[in-house]
Give the backbone structure.
Amino acid sequence: MNNLGKTIEAKVINHKADEYTLEDFDKNTYHIKSNERNYDVGDTVKIFNYPVDNEIVSTFRMPFIEVGEIRELKVVSKTRIGYFLNMGLDKDVLLPFSETIREPKLNSMVLVKLYIDKSGRLATTMKIRKTLERSSGIHKGDIVDGVIYNISREFGLFVAVDDKYEAMVQKKDVFEDYDLGERMKFRVQAVRDDGRLILSTKLEKSAYDEHKSDSLKVYEILLKNKGKMNYADKSDPDEIRKVFNMSKSSFKRAIAILYRQRKIIINDDSIEIKED
């Protein structure tokens, strides 16, 4: 099936109770059992096909990633063959040990590419560098969004700008610790002739302003929660992003600023406003 791991359109040709029969434009037939949707005969809908236990399963659910795409997925478990990532379906997708660059942490986000392995199953890889594109519309001085997908003691930070352009922060420009999978802003320091981007973590004045803004945001959220919240250095990155709308590293820098300003107390599992 050449549409394995891809979203396609198909028309509902039969519907009884929670069972649907659909047909695509090439007259291929699909069967879906679902009570999560309510479609009528004649409706054209999107479906996704993926392998489960040597069978091809079709679903109305849309995954977080499709074959050939690069996306951030959450690490949900570790087994003897690798890690499993949540791709938005009933079945998680494998990240084999052989396709990791560095060991990802459970519950962290990792940037991966989805592919079909030799056995016909969906799998992911952290080895995305050769897949990343060279930029064409990004210029020196631009502020860009990127994800750190590899950290090298020898070379520096490898970054995917906009999840698709190849970039890096050279070792000499790395001044603090960063997390694998961390999403942050960078300044374009140079654009090589081949389109590769050289980045800087220093946004000059705006970097200070951003950190100051993050610390103010954390303090205001603390005020709204009676001055104490059960979040600290060891808190889950996804929970921090959900509550504070920032990465864990940005959160840690923000509370460090508040601590130095003697505005908060940092406990093992919580932060609280310091009373005068």
User: Anything to note?
Assistant: The longest helix spans residues 205-224.
